[in-house]
Amino acid sequence: MVLNLITNVNEAIGEKSGVISFGSGVMHADVAYLNSSLICDQLKRGRYVYPEVSGTGCGMDAVTSEKDIRSFLYNQIYRSGLGMSAVLDIVRGHHGALRMYSEPGEGATFNMLLQALESVAVVSDTVDDVTHADDARFGEGVILVVDDEETIREIATMMLGDMGFGTLTAIDGRDAVDVYRQHAADIVAVLLDMTMPKMDGSECFRELRRINPGVKVVLSSGYNEEEATSRFTDKGLAGFLQKPYSPDRLREIMAGILT
């Protein structure tokens, strides 16, 4: 979502030199403030987090409706219009609001307001509960994380690190085969994306099995399990993890195949 905004602000600057800035914060928004936003589906007052993107583009006159901004961004500033349209739809899907500040020739600043989760504190005086928390770091050995999206690799690596695992990463199936061949003795499981360039998950899985018939592979995909695993039926997958997944779900899968 932020990347879409940055892309569009960059296109608004065009071939001239310009500046793009990014920030974030937390604020308390009242109903009047929320109702003055471009998108506002009866949001409640409360705490909101807001990523903010600014750019020195051509700017625009006051915008009074979502229809106006979609039309303006499509026809005048942003040649494709698709990125900003996607931002509007994503913000609505997350029950958020979008605010824009702009003047002709002065560029624009976009604020996306997303409702903040209330923090939940868990306090325990028992030894048993403290021990249970420590047990969250149950992992031993190395997990090979294979995904062509850098963000997903980084998030999975952090989650697995919190569980106590070491990690190696690969950017596609071909890279994964090379990494596994070099470190097979240390790798206890592979978290494998299904759709990748050069070599997809299905072909990569076959190559990994040639190196080690007993390799434990967890397939990861945005598709549902039935659709994603149709090409892996009876081929020895250790598990399936549907994207996006939580740390608890990843931990549950890894605990199931390794403990």
TrEMBL record:
<dbReference type="GO" id="GO:0016301">
    <property type="term" value="F:kinase activity"/>
</dbReference>
<keyword id="KW-0808">Transferase</keyword>
<dbReference type="InterPro" id="IPR036890">
    <property type="entry name" value="HATPase_C_sf"/>
</dbReference>
<keyword id="KW-0597">Phosphoprotein</keyword>
<dbReference type="GO" id="GO:0000160">
    <property type="term" value="P:phosphorelay signal transduction system"/>
</dbReference>
<dbReference type="InterPro" id="IPR050595">
    <property type="entry name" value="Bact_response_regulator"/>
</dbReference>
<keyword id="KW-0418">Kinase</keyword>
<dbReference type="InterPro" id="IPR001789">
    <property type="entry name" value="Sig_transdc_resp-reg_receiver"/>
</dbReference>
<protein>
    <submittedName>
        <fullName>Sensory box histidine kinase/response regulator</fullName>
    </submittedName>
</protein>
<dbReference type="InterPro" id="IPR011006">
    <property type="entry name" value="CheY-like_superfamily"/>
</dbReference>
<feature type="domain" description="Response regulatory">
    <location>
        <begin position="142"/>
        <end position="258"/>
    </location>
</feature>
<dbReference type="Pfam" id="PF00072">
    <property type="entry name" value="Response_reg"/>
</dbReference>
<feature type="modified residue" description="4-aspartylphosphate">
    <location>
        <position position="193"/>
    </location>
</feature>
<dbReference type="InterPro" id="IPR004358">
    <property type="entry name" value="Sig_transdc_His_kin-like_C"/>
</dbReference>
